[in-house]
Amino acid sequence: MRTTKLPQNSQHFINGLPRQRIEIKAVAKNNSNPIQPRWSYLIRNQLSQGNPKRVLSLYTQIRQKGLYILGLVPLIFKACASASTQTYGKSLHAESIKSGVAIDLHISSSLQNMYSKCGNLVDSRKVFDEMPERNVVSWNAMIAGYLKNGDRESALDLFEKMSIRRNSVTWIEMIDGFAESGDIIKAGHFFDKVPLELRNVVTWTVMIDGYSANGDLEAARELFEIMPERNFFVWSSMISGYFKKGDVKEARNIFDRIPARILVNWNALISGYAQNGFCAEALEMFRKMQSEGFEPDEVTITSVLSACAQIGELHVGKEVHSLIKGKGMKVNQFVLNALLDMYAKCGDLANARLIFEGLSHKTTACWNSMISGFAINGQSEEALEFFRRMEELNDLPDEITFLSLLSACAHGGFLDEGLDIFSKMETYGLVANIKHYGCLVDLLGRAGRLKEAFDLVKSMPIKPNDVVWGTLLGACRVHLDMNMVEQVTLEIGRVDHDMDSGDNSHYVLLSNIYAASEKWEKA
Questions:
Q1: How confident is the model over 311-327, as pLDDT tens digits?
Q2: What pLDDT does residue 7 have?
């Protein structure tokens, strides 16, 4: 083992370390140094668990000991890419240059990949161009970097200039990159050109998934039925594709054909059911999955809690919460959001608030769950209070936040607050949609300000739909304002041929209004 030293004036990249001569123990790649395997195991273990920041912390400890272990450098670049920590990576890059290892193919490839994944294509290409030698991994990483960052033209140019033989990964990157960008035709052309000896199950799967993700289920199904062998991912891709299209029956048919299912397949089915509103089916499949010996993961739990929230299954939701605790499951932000949303929508605001207050990072979705929960459970003042807290913390609301707030104001009779909240949407750079205007019409209508509500409907920048007109007519019925009914009726008649649903519910409502006013001849 040889020992080298950095120049005296070099500044170590780890924050807090003084400028000094740092002894570097360069360890050969054959792991002759007994120290390397121990650190390597710890770092690889943390990477596999998805803890890139922990990896960087471990590497800081290594450097504080004065060690520079060559075999770890590519892993640290990988951690930087996962954590999108380009600054750390740049510092390590500088040290690699000073210690003379930056030209190592494995290190330079990892460095190039780190820059690409951090969106820095300029430095990534610079590293690529300065490599004394390149292998197919280097070419693939650069092509993937361009594609992931939306530069298809540069990716295609590099693909055509490849000076070495392409492998299956090269073709997969091109197919996936163009499919992900929506250019499914070009992706199909690449798939057709893949040499037979390189057309493996992943190549087929990526092409099928591209068709599925872009809504072309017919083309996806055609390839799916003729592919030589299928992996678990392609089954899930087809299931998700049919669910995305709303074809729940065909999604289930595909699931039932899977010869040997794994958890990912169950997750595709359960989440698809929940997303399409088939919540009872989602819960039924969850129970069946468990009966067949599968343990749920974070994806399963999130989908099941969503199903519980939609149909108010508080009891089942609590069982799932107990399952999380009992199994000691890792709880990520998605699971916490789902738990919070489930309790809020099921009316258990005490537990919802308990989870909310315990969150270290409160996303907009978390705020929305609480505000919406208060709104739908008639606690309008609490909804407004939470919005005030949200503003004080400078957390940005979105369209859903304002929709829940307007609904809370309408049901709570907070007219002035509702008008003020509606006007705030523009302050946050948000554009009101038909649902926001519907809530505002409801707010004015409930307050008896029917003329203002009618004027709002006529002046809306969006064409009013049946729900908006129905809301206004409902307010007319409550307040028995027959003059306004006549005006609304004339306006409905004028635009009736353009209305979207074509149903006659407004005339049923009109009949009820007239009946309530004892004008039976018109009823």
A1: 999 999 999 999 999 98
A2: 33
- Residue 10 scores a pLDDT above 70: no
pLDDT, residue 489, reads 82
Sign of CA dihedral 440, 442, 448, 450: positive
Distances (CA, A) of 514 to 198, 393, 445, 489, 522: 74, 50, 18, 12, 7
* Residue that has been written with the tokens 């343990």 in this structure: 295
Cα-Cα-Cα-Cα dihedral sign, residues 80, 88, 9, 66: negative
**Can you list the alpha helix ranges (DSSP code H) found in 99-167?**
105-117, 121-130, 136-148, 152-161
Contact 431, 465 (CB under 8 A): no
Report the distance separating Cα 117 and Cα 464, nearest Å. 45
pTM of the model as a whole = 0.77
- Residue in the block written with tokens 């960052």: 149
Measured distance CA(35)–CA(53) in Å, rounded: 22
Q: Which candidate, 477, 504, 482, 480, places its Cα nearest to that of 493?
A: 504
Phi and psi, residue 23, nearest 5°: -75, 130
Whole-number Å distance between alpha carbons of 229 and 201: 6
Q: Is the pLDDT of residue 89 over 60?
A: yes
The vertex-389 CA angle with 383 and 392, nearest 5°, equals: 145
Q: Check residue 23 and report its DSSP letter.
A: E
Question: Residue 270 above 70 pLDDT?
Answer: yes
Tokens representing 94 are: 């500088």
Distance between start and end Cα atoms, the chain? 99
Q: What is the DSSP letter of 433?
A: -
Taking each helix axis from N to C end, the angle separating 466-479 and 434-446, rounded to the nearest 10 degrees, works out to 0
Contact 407, 383 (CB under 8 A): no
DSSP state of 33: S
The two structure tokens encoding residue 278: 């088939």
User: What sign does the dihedral 330-333-335-339 (CA atoms) show?
Assistant: positive
Q: What is each CA distance from 23 to 17, 60, 184, 247, 394, in whole angstroms?
A: 13, 15, 53, 64, 47
Higher pLDDT: 480 or 506? It is: 480
Is residue 32 over pLDDT 50? no
